[in-house]
Amino acid sequence: MDRRGGGCHRAGSRPEALAQRDDLTRVVLASLQAAAERPLEVPTEVDALLKVLPGELRAAAEEELTEAHRAALLQDVRAIVLDALATRTGGAP
């Protein structure tokens, strides 16, 4: 996973600016914020996919999905989502 500091580097793509754009964007940003407050849960579908991986790959992936890596995982997801939201409109709210 990408650990470069996670964060959106596009001009005008700050979460505050994006949140002004539309209701769906506000909901997505609120969900990202709330995710940090909930217990880390691996969806059933992801768990099923992990079970078909070879042992070494499965162990590495499962390690990434532990509480010890929670902050980095959430940071990566947040960076990906914010980048996608900014890209959708060129970063302008």
What does this structure look like?
- This protein has 93 residues and is mostly helical.
- It has one domain (15-88).
- Helix content is 59%, strand content 0%.
- The chain contains five helices and no strands.
- Helix 2 packs antiparallel against helix 5.
- The chain starts with 14 loop residues before the first helix and ends in a 5-residue tail after the last helix.
- 8% of the residues are buried.
Largest beta-sheet details: none
Give the domain tally: 1
Shape: elongated
Structural class: mainly alpha
Secondary-structure element order, as H and E?
HHHHH
Percent strand equals under 5%
End-to-end span in angstroms?
Answer: 28 Å
Please give a quick description of this structure.
With 93 residues, this protein is an all-alpha fold.
Task: Please describe the structure with a list of short key phrases separated by commas or semicolons.
93 residues; mainly alpha; disordered N terminus; 59% helix; 5 helices
List the helices and strands and how they pair.
Blueprint: H1 15-19, H2 23-35, H3 44-51, H4 55-64, H5 70-88
Helix pairs in contact: 2-5
